[in-house]
Amino acid sequence: MQRLDLKQLLSQKLSPQQIQFIKLLQIPTAELETRIKEEMEVNPALEEDEPDEPEDLDHDDSSDDSDDPDASLDNDENTLDEDFDDRSADRETADEMPEPDLAAKEDLASSDDAPDNTDLDLSDYLNDDEIAGYKMQGDGPGEEEERDTPLADTSGSLLDSLLDQLHFADLDERQEAIGQQLIGSIDGDGYIRRDLSAIANDLAFSQNLEVTVKEIEDVLRVVQGFDPPGIAARDLPECLLLQLERRPQDEATANAERIIGETFEEFSKKHYPRIQQKLDLEDDELKEAINVILKLNPKPGGSGPSGLGKTQYLMPDFILTNDNGVLNLTLNARNAPELRVSPAYTEMFRTYDKAAKKDTKMKEAVTFVKQKLDSAKWFIDAIRQRQNTLLRTMNAIVELQRDFFMEGDEGKLRPMILKDIATRIGMDISTVSRVANSKSVQTEFGIYPLKFFFSEGIATDSGEDASSREVKSILKDLIGKESKERPLSDDKLEKMLNARGYNIARRTVAKYREQLNIPVARLRKEL
């Protein structure tokens, strides 16, 4: 039986402009340029504002500018600097409104979806003052923008290098096809972890090439002879043995090969007495062999700039400088071109407004232009809002962690969580989280991700909470000064921290040690 029910529901939805702002907020500076280029490609109303060319000393071209009909499009009122000079007095007001107006944005979006059949109101689009860019006064100063920033490495990857070496190998067409399949199966660490029979099946299905496992093993042995040493191994022992084969074959190398080949399990657990007993090695012989093994590379695929992945350089989003005790924070806008709405579209609206006959085709064209113009303005507003939010968030972090930024001592870090910053700047925790997850700041002591400054508090005997970063720093220092013959256990580390006034449990010590990528005491033991 069908029923007709009446429900009253109250819900809140994000407008497209709010969604756009959220996505832009979590983009780091290194990816912002790409996102802006993508927007410029799909929206012809958005263009990059070309910088003014320097004037000649003799001013010979001054008269030519006055005759140029397009010179009026490049006047000061269309530039970003003029726009933001006019708006500088309103920056504090803009900072207090981090979220776009939901109702207003939805009204604009609905107007785009259904073009109005009545006469278009072009008054808002004929006013040049409404056409704004997003270059902010908080962006980095000239000296910082002119500073060379390292770019991603453009040299060939390890995959390209291996394929080049394969072409120079003395292989027939069938073997070269097998070699290409093997090289394509190498993972990021430089290993082939797939079973050779599975690779044979891939060749049969993808290239209609029937091969045996023996043929694949023969070609694999050739690929394993390529640089870097240890590449294309199927497990860690094979990787180390491949590297030992290329070393000078002295007594230490021979003992190292025996340790890896016969007692790898004992070696991985550092049971050195068992290794000596099984291989009949003296203390000096064992120590020399272990030193040889420790110099090998367990991940040949990720070594140096020629690894399988391109080298990624960290580009800071903020630049913090110390000017005689005064901390100055600026945004790094090196990779963000200045944007504006194309003046040509304003001229198009003027032409339509003055036209005596307004046919349907022209009206449709102007409606399309209006949609693109609105989209361009919303994008510029989202960029401006993004920068306002970034500056407010980072300024709050600098205020809370001022002692660290002044001295660079991790012991000066205060306990700080996302809620502390969200409360201080009057925003939601999720907004602060988006800022902190993918941003970094350049200081006089190095580049730090914003996540670095957030930490939980540890109770102390003095009654004040200490940052977990401070405890980790002390823990790392204690382990660094320990005797390698008798490393400190987690119980001993707990007692040493308690003696210093930190109320911390052994399981917390173990958790912090694992977060620092420090192994247990048994695996830290050295000969």
Automatic annotation (TrEMBL):
Residues covered by the RNA polymerase sigma factor 54 core-binding domain: 152-345
Record Pfam families: Sigma54_AID, Sigma54_CBD, Sigma54_DBD
Region (Disordered): 36-156
Keyword Calcium (UniProt): no
RNA polymerase sigma factor 54 DNA-binding domain span: 367-525
DNA-binding recorded as keyword: yes
Skewed-composition ranges (Acidic residues): 46-85, 109-131
Record keywords: DNA-binding, DNA-directed RNA polymerase, Nucleotidyltransferase, Sigma factor, Transcription, Transcription regulation, Transferase
Record NCBIfam families: rpoN_sigma (TIGR02395)
Family: Belongs to the sigma-54 factor family.
Protein name listed in UniProt: RNA polymerase factor sigma-54
Gene: rpoN
